[in-house]
Amino acid sequence: MKTLRAVVAGPVSSGKSTFVKTASEKNLIETECLSTDSTSLLKPQTTVAFDFSRLILSPEMEMHIYGTPGQSRFDFMWDLLIKRAEGYILLVAAHRPDDLPSAREILVYMHQRVQIPMIVGITHTDCPNARSVAEIIDALDYLDKEKSPIVMTVDPMNKTSVLKVVMKLKSIILGEIDGE
Ligand SMILES: Nc1nc2c(ncn2[C@@H]2O[C@H](COP(=O)(O)OP(=O)(O)OP(=O)(O)O)[C@@H](O)[C@H]2O)c(=O)[nH]1
Ligand SMILES: [Mg+2]
Asked: What is the distance in A from the centroid of ligand 2 to the CA of 7?
């Protein structure tokens, strides 16, 4: 069985754990602990190590999906996870523009370590004050000017929506479609 490894990264509360859980067919692992500091204003629990789920793609292939912690004090986990990955999804919440610098920091962090297929997944588009996709991409100031990233809106609570992003990433990793 061939295994593809994908990482789901992004700022605190962008929807990473929800995404990984929704994609899951089996073996879900979560490492959520009570939030402290400013994160507790957003949500009672936060990921401290990683989320993990498995998805069967075909009889010969499965995908392991790892969700990172959002807090930068756990960035050693970002490093561990991204270095084994074949692709990643950067989740960005559309309704919290104050998080965009942190999303960009994560993008830079990943880009310094790997050049692998990636997708920007815009979450919380259903929320009041959600910014437009163009505004978000502008703020991310994508690093590779010759290649624009694939950008998709995604509802991490909706399986069809999550699988659409996962299958797109799989196709780019396998070279079935161009990542530009
Ligand atoms: N309305 C709305 N809520 C969402 C969306 N995506 C995620 N959520 C909610 O946002 C909250 C945070 O989601 P998590 O999946 O825990 O976020 P996370 O990125 O894993 O957060 P950390 O582990 O703390 O970094 C949860 O209550 C989700 O149900 C979305 O697109 N729309
Ligand atoms: Mg989480």
From this structure: 12
